[in-house]
Amino acid sequence: MTDDLEQLYQTMYPSVVRFLYRKVWDQDRAEDLAQEVFIRAMAHRPEKPRAWIFAVAANLARDEARAAIRRKRHLTLLTNDPVTLNSPSESAHDTVEHDEQMAQVQLALDALTPRDREVLLLWDAGLSYQEIAKQTGLAVGAVGTTLARARKRLVEAHDRMEAEDRAAHS
Amino acid sequence: MRHIPEDELHAYLDQALSRSQCIEIETHLSRCAGCRTARDGVAALRDRTTALLARSMPRLVTPPAYASLAQRAVTHRRHSWRRSALWAASLAGALIGGWGLRAALDPHPAESPMAMTTAPPSAIDDLPASDLPINPSAEVATALPAPAETRQAAPPLATVPARLTAEGVAASAAPAREIEAPSESPATALDALWSPVTLEEAEEATGAMVPAIPGLPVVEIQLRRGGPQERPLLMVSQHHPSGELVHTIEGPVSMVAAVVADQLEQRFHSSEPARSLPDYLDTADGIRRTSRVLVVVSRLSADSLNALVQTVVLK
Questions:
Q1: Judgement on whether residues A80 and A1 belong to the same structural domain of the protein
Q2: Has this prediction a pTM greater than 0.95?
Q3: In this structure, are A32 and A102 located in the same domain?
Q4: Which residue range is the domain that position A160 belongs to?
Q5: Residues of A in Cβ contact (< 8 Å) with B11
Q6: ipTM
């Protein structure tokens, strides 16, 4: 069991971080939460660890979001956090462009309904339709429908924002 | 002839269908140009989504050592009762022993050139790192008075002279400092909770998260208990090849800031703070996360310390 979990940890850690990152939009917090998830998995020894890990990750991200609202003042200060270092290899221009692109995707994701977003992120994290269905309470048959809608809306929202952005700059 | 619904095309391309369903779809696609066009459209949409999501990727991540997480998991299971007991014991010890300890440890209470007048530490948990009154390029003692933000968070209660002999930080068997804390100030009363511990004890108390610079011999580890569910504040002193001692301090942001500002000798420099793993406190409101940082302080140059702090590992 330990070996299984360790193997799972090695393979799943990056995708759990990615899943959490798109919920909290902070690298360090995403990694902290991912570690917390695996620590809990080690303590709880779930029978189906893959699905369990993403369920707990989603819960932690939700708690984190609620706490973030309560501590809005602190979060505002953290955006100027001197501890957060930019990668020195990236030029300022690249960084700005990357940040803008990322912000657009973030806004587009935020434009989805919570359920559509959850299904899309779980799919992107590598979960199967069955696992997504179990976690979200959807019927397996409804996962494809939800994914189809989520993909379409993500792209539409993104293209709309990009067009608005271009119009604003021209 | 039934055309393939869009959601089935998504499921087909996502490889979420059974073999027989796939055969059925592929047979239909081979005969139906309209559905092939629809499939190509769904495939393009899928690719587009994947590309967009790829833009919102975090930096590449390397999982921390599994063993260190496993150790924390063990601590996670048993720490609630243990922490409560230790917290109570430490607090009792501080109340009983604080004044006696001060008198016993400070050999020159009246004439130390290191005496500093300091502001008391601010509220001890959950301050953003930007509140850190640590200036990496400045002498530690010049970080006074505390920045406005910190003062706003906790108005000065009293002026507390804190003193530490040059050798006392690392060489003595016990924390050598004088505490003259007004009894109504719990934050300063906690200073008496520092105690030297073995590596095993430090690992036990932190869930194997003792900060250290790899390759340098550890001279001493001192620990100050945190609150329930919090990892303690730690100072790990190590011999640097230059002959100097370097001290790695890890703990909640404002506690580390307070130690650096109040209790270290004037000639010490501090590295820039690096983010450490936070504490997660199970509260009635859910999981609460408190930020922690680590700094390396020593008489070495700030540049050297900034290089050293990059090498610190938690183990």
A1: yes
A2: no
A3: no
A4: 92-170
A5: 129, 143-144, 147
A6: 0.74
